Amino acid sequence: MGFLKLIEIENFKSYKGRQIIGPFRRFTAIIGPNGSGESRGDLGGIEGGGGGG
Question: Which domain holds residue 22?
């Protein structure tokens, strides 16, 4: 399993020059293409809530 340590950007949108964002703590993310349901409300059991997305 991979994880994101930091992000290095240069002249991206409102960030001018070279910027390093991070280091990040480890976390879990649900990712997918737009419209694939990654923000659906029925994930309550995974998120520890009652759904309602």
Answer: 1-27
